Amino acid sequence: MILLSAGGGADESNDDTLRIYLSLRPMTTNHSSLRLARPEPGSAGKFYIETYGCQMNQNDSEVVAAVLQADGFAHTASLDEADVVLINTCAIRDNAEQRIWGRLAEFRGLKRRRPGLLVGIIGCMAERLKDRLIEQEQTVDLVVGPDGYRSLPALVRQAAGGAKAVNVLLSREETYAEIAPVRLDRNGVTAFVSIMRGCNNMCSYCVVPYTRGVERSRDTETILAEVRDLFERGYREVTLLGQNVNSYRYGEVNFARLLARVAEVSPLLRVRFATSHPKDLSDELIETIAAWPNICRAIHLPAQSGSSRMLELMNRKYTREWYLGRIEAIRRRLPECSISTDLIAGFCTETPEDHAATLSLMREVGYEFAYMFKYSERPGTKAQRTMRDDVPEAVKTARLTEIINLQNELSLAANRRDVGRHFEVLIEGTSKRSADEVYGRTSQNKVVILPKMNYLPGDYVHVLITDCSSATLIGTPLC
Ligand code: SAH
Ligand code: SF4
Ligand code: F3S
């Protein structure tokens, strides 16, 4: 094995240093279905890609598709046709990784039937486990971390030649700025645009700074060029993505200024963003949203906990009171804005009082929507190294259930308030429920089902809300 190391090569489990290395391991297997010479477009073989995890991972798969297509590989949506199977993985919680191990076991059988098939693990779990993935699972031929996607064509060819390939080098600069992502499985109306990568926040429970490296922002002009191109191709909504979008800064351009410039592309283009860190939710940002009607009235503001003691242990850099101050600022200036959040149940040392504080925060804010999780200890994080994961599993489960039940109540109450009101809905496609219905979203990011009429994806329709469940609004067009 050739082992190149950078960043001091420290052991990831002992401090906050990111261990970075690239290794190439010769193997004897021969994969004859892929050509080794640089191929003509479309003739290098077919790749199939399966994506787990967050929106950034979905967008990364689109970058991967662009890189591979530029090098002569063709995308296939059918596993049966594939020469290369890529699994874009998530490492955020243990159950996310367990799913991938389960999927790899299935690929083991597939590979036995088709020995030429190459299996690649890319993304956050690849970055976390590095070549241990190859050691533990013979099915895996290549392992590529989130900053190594430009090297994928070469690594696939190397693996096809029989040498297992690993590139888990993290970068301080890589933003894939000039790569135009190939929109996989999109509806032609809404698209993700990554504006920054990595995270410097070091929340004590979180693996992301280790899997995605340090924060870096993408060149503003390349973002605007991508957005303009999407609009010209008929897209009507972009979601600007980053682990911490509101800490974006490229030269003089901060996130509020970037948002205004994206909104300026067209009044017919809706602009969303995810995810914001409360500490960077500035008044300037709130004012910018207020100034542009096409910046959506929906802010996802992960709280994680309602207890200031927990927030301190989590290294979130704000208190409950400070967070509520930001909510008040949003409510004051953007009264029609929906607010959603992420919450973790059962973090280290969480008491019944801390848990009660999370429930009371939820009531006080009245979240429209929440992603809710049980704390899952991640190797190498500060929490794993310095704290005890001491809340019993059954207690975590009971607390999470309470949080979910409360959120269902809050979501239903919020949706009931919308009944009888009018919204502009951007149509995204045909409803899964019925071919006679279409679905779209309000600016507040709520899904609305309405009769199909002659509506097409990309149309804006004024809708009266007539009914709801806790998850969906039902509407009728206002002509
Ligand atoms: N950068 C974003 C999202 C990060 S991951 C942010 O900070 O808001 C999405 C969510 O997963 C987090 O907000 C958090 O609620 C949850 N999460 C992260 N690490 C976790 C862990 N170890 N156990 C349980 N949930 C976790
Ligand atoms: Fe993880 Fe915190 Fe960064 Fe979000 S802000 S990705 S939770 S370290
Ligand atoms: Fe998962 Fe990586 Fe996203 S750990 S949540 S895929 S940044």
User: What proportion of the residues form beta strands (DSSP E)?
Assistant: 15-25%
What order do the strands of the largest sheet run in, or round the barrel if closed? 1-2-8-7-6-5-3-4
**What molecules are bound to this protein?**
S-adenosyl-L-homocysteine, iron/sulfur cluster, FE3-S4 cluster
Integer average pLDDT: 91
Helix content: 25-40%
Tally of contiguous helical segments: 14
Outline: globular
**Class by SSE composition:** alpha/beta
Flag low-confidence runs. Answer: 1-36
Task: Provide keyphrases for this structure.
binds S-adenosyl-L-homocysteine; binds FE3-S4 cluster; single chain; binds iron/sulfur cluster; disordered N terminus; globular; 479 residues; eight-stranded mixed β-sheet; five-stranded mixed β-barrel
